[in-house]
C-alpha cells in the first residue's frame, strides 16, 4: 500500500507526521511512501531528504494511508478517498463533528491521542512524547522572558541568587520542566496531588511540596478531579509560593474536563515584578486566572503569563522525529506480516482504542481498558 505524508495546514504548526528517518522505517514494513512537496519544510526536512530516503514527492492525499499531525479540516476530508485510513491527533472526545464527517467520507480514522496508557503502548504514546518536549520548551520560554540567570553565581562583580521555580503538576510535562529548570541551576519545587511522584521529582533535582489532603487513587493512569478540601489546602500553598518564586510552570490537566484553576489573579498579583508564569494548560482553559491561550500577556504588576499552545511545535525537528517514531510503532503493530498492508485487529486493545471510525462507522468510544 501507499502511505502519504501530507503538509499540515493548521496555523503555527511546524511539525510533520514523518521525517526522512521514519519514512525509511515505513518502507521496511513493505509500504511505498509519497510526501507532499514542502511537507517537512517547517521542521527542517526538505523534499530532497525524503526522496533520498526512498519516498516519491507528489500528491499524497489519495494514498491508501494518510499520515497527519493534526486532524484534517473539512476541506482536507473531501480530499480523502473512500476506504483510505487517516492517522493523526483527532481528539475524538472533543470532536464528535469531526468523527461524523470522517464517517460520512467512508474512511477509517485512527486517533494517535487515543492510545491507551498501558505499558505495551508506551512506544506509540505521542501525547507523552509531545508533553516531554513541551515541558522542556516551557522552561526555555520562561528563561527567555525572565532575562536573568537561572543558576546562582558568585563572581568578582557580586553574587547572583539562583532563580526559584515552582512546577504545578508533575506528570510527563511537569517532570520534563523540573529536569530542564534544575539542569539550568534553578531551585525547583513541584507539587502534584499524586504523592507517588515525590521520588521522581527528587531524582530530577526538585523538592516535592505535598498538599496533605488524601486523594482517591487513580485506576486508569489518568488524574481525577481533586476534592474541595484538597483545593483549599493547595490554594494556600500556591499563595505562599507565588510570593517567593520567580517562575511558575503549570501543567495540571484532568482528562475530559477543563483544566483545574490553580493560581488566582490575587496569587499572580502577589508575585514579584519580572516573574514569569507558563500556563501549559492554556488550551484547556488554563490553570491560571488571566492566561490568554496562544499569547504572552503582562499583568499590571509586571508578571508575564505565557499561554502558548504550540510549545512542542517550537522544537519542530525533534517533535516531528518523536511523533514520527511513535507513528511508525503504531503502523508496525498494524502490519504484522511486514507486507505493506495495514490491518486493524479489534481483539487487540490498542488497535481497538485508536480506531475511532472504521470504514465509515464511528467506533468511538472503545470499551474501557484497565492499566497494566
Ligand atoms: P496529565 O497531562 O493528564 O496531567 C498532568 C499532571 O497534572 C498530572 O501529574 C496530574 O496528577 C496533575 N494534576 C491534576 N490535577 C492537579 C491539580 N489540581 N493540581 C496539581 N496537579 C494536578 O498527566 P500525564 O503527564 O500525561 O501523566 C500522568 C501520569 O501517567 C505520569 O505519572 C505518567 O508516568 C503516567 N503515564 C503512563 C503512561 C503509560 O503507562 N503508557 C503513559 C502516559 C503517562
UniProtKB/TrEMBL annotation:
It comes from the Bacteria. Residues 4-134 form the Alanine dehydrogenase/pyridine nucleotide transhydrogenase N-terminal domain. GO terms for cellular component: plasma membrane. GO terms for molecular function: NADP binding; oxidoreductase activity; proton-translocating NAD(P)+ transhydrogenase activity. It is a multi-pass membrane protein. It is an enzyme of class 7 (translocase). Keywords: Cell inner membrane, Cell membrane, Membrane, NAD, NADP, Nucleotide-binding, Translocase, Transmembrane, Transmembrane helix. Residues 143-307 form the Alanine dehydrogenase/pyridine nucleotide transhydrogenase NAD(H)-binding domain. Its main location: membrane. It catalyses: NAD(+) + NADPH + H(+)(in) = NADH + NADP(+) + H(+)(out). Coiled coil: none annotated. The keyword Nucleotide-binding applies. GO terms for biological process: NADPH regeneration. The transhydrogenation between NADH and NADP is coupled to respiration and ATP hydrolysis and functions as a proton pump across the membrane. This is NAD(P) transhydrogenase subunit alpha. The chain holds residues 12 to 383 of 520 of the full protein.
